[in-house]
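Re: that chain you flagged

S.,

Sorry for the slow reply, it's been a week of failed gels. I finally had a moment to sit down with the sequence you sent. For the record, here it is as I used it:
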Amino acid sequence: MERTFYSHGKLLLTSEYVVLDGAMALAIPTKKGQTLKITHTGSKNNSIHWRSFTVEGDCWFEDTLSISQHGIVSLKNTEISKTLCEILMAAQRLNPLFLTQVTERTVVTQLEFPKSWGLGSSSTLINNIAQWAAVDAFSLLFNSFKGSGYDIAAAQIDTAFLYQLAHKTPSFKPAPLTWTFTDQLFFVYLNKKQDSKEGISHYKASRGSQQIDLNYFSAISEAMIAVTTLGGFKTLVEKHERAISEIIEMPTVKELRFSDYSGAIKSLGAWGGDFVLATGTAVEMRYFKEKGYETIIPFSEMSL
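Prediction finished late last night. Pasting the structure tokens below so you have them in one place:
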């Protein structure tokens, strides 16, 4: 018997950091995601032989997990193995029948994007495991990782959406983008993966006791959906970047790296790494290539 599950990757367009405190955010699922395939071998041995593959087809993680009434134990006991066991045991707590059948299983995960891109190798895994275990993916996330949960919403939806965490309860709704200027929007990879946990810790430390106008960011998120011109979009980007910069006490990515660029540049997610969103023509993207940023993806190729 074989079962396959799939989840989309994610990108947060607005309300990075402040989404954690309840601001409404605009996000998109990506065309590329991750699959998880389970095969039962028939052997009467309650275990999992797990293999994870990169987009290039290289096996980057492999381990054997033994399942018993006392928990789930890995053969290799690496940090990655421990995290995987914790996720699976969290799924068991949500569904006590999960993994109770005495059988040997092989699990293969396959990423469709480079791990370093920060498009959700963890969130797509959690959503896939939640589907397998027949549990709520948000509950599984909050029981095993920290974060706002927007990446779980992205894993499940097939259009841009608005996401909000109100009183620790996630909600999201489709918000299809009707932008006519997507041919002038590009995602530029900054050649490093940013640590989201580190970014969140910095935000909480910088925020301190300052009062943040969450409605301001929610309004920008909603205005982003309704904007009809590239000029209007650039204005919203610049307002958003300035506001986040003041909260986290960090210069904007444009000030730091691309001060002489003519278009607008929007940080995405934790500042300092992964992708930025840049406005401009395909010809103007040469600016980034000349600075050593070779991975430049048109909006239409990234967004589902």
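What I noticed first: The longest strand covers residues 25-40.

Talk soon,
D.
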